[in-house]
Design brief:
Layout (H helix, E strand, L loop, with lengths): L8 E6 L2 E8 L15 E8 H10 L4 E4 L1 E3 L2 H12 L8 E3 L6 E7 L2 E7 L7 H5 L5 E7 L5 H9 L3 E5 L21 E2 L3 H8 L4 H9 L4 E5 L5 E5 L4 E5 L12 H15 L3 H15 L12 H11 L36
Helix pairs in contact: 1-7, 5-6, 7-8
Length: about 350
Amino acid sequence: MPAESAPDIDVFLSGLLFFDLVFTGLEGPPEPGTEVWTGGMGSGPGGIANFAVALSRLGLRTSLAAAFGTDVYGRYCWDVLSQEHIDLSRSRRFPEWHSPVTVSLAYAGDRAMVTHGHPPPVPVAELAGSPPPSRATVAHIGLDTADWVHTAHQAGSLVFADVGWDPSEAWSAALLEQLACCHAFLPNDVEAMRYTRTDTPEAALAALADLVPVAVITRGAAGVLAVDGTTGETADIPALPVNVLDATGAGDVFGAGFVAATLTGWPLADRLRFAGLTAGLSVQHFGGALAAPGWHEIAEWHARNRRPDYAFLDDVLPAETIAETSRRGPVTLGFGDDSWR
């Protein structure tokens, strides 16, 4: 819980938002000239929305600045995020702009994605503007985020940075210059090695540790590596053994868990375990944003497992399982929308 003198917003985010359509149950990628029926399908807001929903479900007061189309995808995403108690007062809706759409195909414990979209009518930096006071800021950093991320840092907000896939595969080292005003950087192993021009996650971590106080590299089923230069802590934490239905957005959900754990003040290893737990619970359901767990799911998992390495949860969870009381967004486009009737 924040101190009385803390800002009204716990976490401010700005970035590109997508409509995600997820297919699960595939045995492999589809072949040309064939049709494949899948075992499951879900939809939901994606991109920066994965972070926002996961943060809000962990009880953090979350504000998002993003562009929304006024097509059915954009309206759906806006309605869902509103139901998830996310402040959208800094977001904008743009008529005649098509919402970016990603189709995610989940198989072999991972996912492949196909995306179509047009640049937003205004840059992300303009949407973010002068960021509001917040305890933390989350950004998918790019070449157009430098100014507002620097402003958030100067205002005393802890900046947590992530990156998206670079479709040009140029992996510009100039992007890493923004880490000078970041508290933590959380790429996956492929991104980390590409941007640092290294051959192993360990070498990438060492390179990033020279650029940012807290460097975290996620490795999927192989777990996570991290170093905290502010405390001298290092950690190598294995992933939780879970049955993966859909890994879409798992890195963002992990990041949200790490932000929440950092604001709680836990040691590095416990921050990583908590983040890994949130991601591990999310990949057992459809999508990224709407698969993110809340305290209800975390409490249920802890009550069932009682693992000694997660004993730190005893300090924040009640003895009895938390009841699920909040309404959540639907995982199917159009469900819950009375305008269709």
